[in-house]
Amino acid sequence: MQVGKSPYVRFDSNDYSVPHQYVRRTLLAEASLKYVRIVDGIKLVAEHERSFDKGQQIEQAAHVEALEVEKTGASRSRGMDRILNVAPSARIYFKYAAERGHNMGRLTQLLIKWLELYGAAELEAALSDCIASATFHSNAIERVLEQRRAARGLAPAVALRFLKDRRVDEIVVKPKSLDAYERLVRRQENDE
Question: What are phi and psi of 80, to 5 degrees?
């Protein structure tokens, strides 16, 4: 039986929990009149009392608790958390954007893109400006970021995308001696 994205095995129209480490793996369900045993090769993964009802979700508390712990740890590195860690004003901005029904996933993607393109300080400044002017739309953030950049006389930011080529990892660069340049500089300094 194939375990999908959620840590459950479907057997006889019921879902039986398995440890989250077995997601997206193929396991075997062995059933008797009393038990459903889920195995990986010869290893017993889970054992549940069999249910003859239909559409039931049979869980072991340990499976659910382990999954909650895993998700809590994983959520620390999520995109929204990344933004909140570097731009404190993002918390307020997210709140107002959510109240206005904005797509929070898309907003998070854009904020991460701008964080990488403009940096944390600029993103924080743009979010603060948007909050102060009560403009809670992603276009406003991008406009402020570009206005701040133009005010400093900089060209519009451009994201660079590099293709990963294995040959690049194999290149060995041997640094050349700079002695000739240093002699030239010393000679010019002595001539002055």
Answer: -65, -40
CB atoms within 10 A of CB 140: 16
Distance CA 37, CA 67 (A): 20
**pLDDT, tens only, 82-127:** 898 899 999 999 999 888 988 888 898 899 999 989 999 999 999 9
Lowest mean pLDDT among 102-111, 161-170, 174-183: 161-170
Instruction: Give the DSSP H/E element, type plus range, for residue 128.
Output: helix 120-132
Reduce the DSSP state of residue 80 to 3 states and report it.
Answer: helix
**138-151 helix and 120-132 helix, angle to the nearest 10 degrees:** 120
Domain ranges of the chain: 8-73, 76-151
Residue 31 identity: A
Report the half-sphere exposure of 131 (CA within 13 A, side-chain side).
16
